[in-house]
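Per-record layout

source: Paracoccus kondratievae
name: MmcQ/YjbR family DNA-binding protein
length: 113
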Amino acid sequence: MSRDLVNEICAAQPGAEWSDPWGGGHDCWKVAGKIFALTGAVGTHVSVKTDSIEVAEFLIETGVADRAPYMHRSWVAMPLDSAPDELAHRIRHSYRLVRGALTKKVQASLPPL
């Protein structure tokens, strides 16, 4: 899967916003100001949030993902050459987790799912 396809999946999420907060070619995808997907300037992985530290550790131990640098332990770095359906699932799930943690008022201001 290419970085362009990752960006396409991220952009399709309701209320998703792109930024490059650190400069240098990062693709940082946010919903209501909260990151749900991040591709570094080098661009070999996309970092996404998981349900828990345990899920992240499981994905890392089974070789599905790597530890996401600079992020909480509940985040993983999925290689861009992962199976497209797995990568799309992880991006969408990360989006839903981050969106679900927003206040009800902020959630109500976003486009519907």
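summary: The longest strand covers residues 34-39. The mean pLDDT is 95.
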